[in-house]
Structures are given as C-alpha cells and as structure tokens.
Specification:
43% helix, two-stranded parallel ribbon, alpha+beta
Length: 122
C-alpha cells in the first residue's frame, strides 16, 4: 500500500493506517524469507471496553462512531483481523455490521454453568 492511498477522511488516521499496513507488509516479507510465512492475523482485543470514543458521551453513540462509522478504517487493515465488539452492538446492529464490514459477524460467547466453562461460536 502506498502512502497516498486514502481510506480515511482524517489525514492522520490515513497515515496511521498506511504505516500499520507497511509494518504488516514488511513482516510478511521477513517471514517469507525465513520460510515460515502463512499469513498474519491481527487480534485487537478489549475494544468492547471502550466507553467513550470520537468525542461522544453517550455509550450507544460512541459505539456507532467507533465501530460502524470507522468500518472503512477497520477494513483497510491488510491482514486477517479479529476485533472485539461490544455484544450489545453486535446484537442490535447485526445487519449494519454485516453491511459495513462485508462479512457476517460471529460471536464467541463464554458462559459458566457452575464449574464448567462453555465456549460457543455463533
């Protein structure tokens, strides 16, 4: 990706995204040289814990601004990516998320029934 590729409206965000993609490109090249390259998976955890983002005080507006309005930036990362989303957003905006991210979201729910931990993918 070149530095003049515009995915973000904000030039600082665009430069950050370009730099992240440059790091990923360089990492792939290095791993390929070492013969251990398959692909890169980026895991961004704890995003569901964000309570105030993009100058929004309301929790729902904050989620909308960060997770839905910024979908092009999330999609602009040139790697397989796993993002943690707030479950309430996932459940209330499933169609919006699917449209903006061009993929059907899945949820990994962890529940406890006394002594046993159960993990289910939906």
């Amino acid at each position: 990706m070149t530095s003049n590729t515009l995915l973000c409206k904000d030039p600082i965000e665009n430069e950050l995204l370009n730099e992240v993609n440059l790091v990923l490109t360089n990492a792939r090249a290095l791993l390929r040289k070492q013969g251990i390259y398959f692909d890169i998976v980026l895991v961004v955890d704890n995003l569901e814990k964000v309570r105030k983002a993009m100058g929004k005080d309301d929790l729902r507006e904050s989620y909308q601004a960060l997770f839905l309005d910024k979908a092009p930036e999330f999609n602009g990362v040139q790697a397989h990516a796993i993002y943690t989303f707030p479950l309430e957003l996932l459940r209330s905006s499933m169609a919006n998320i699917a449209n903006r991210f061009d993929i059907e979201p899945s949820s990994l729910d962890i529940t406890f029934d006394g002594e046993t931990e159960k993990i289910s993918l939906r």
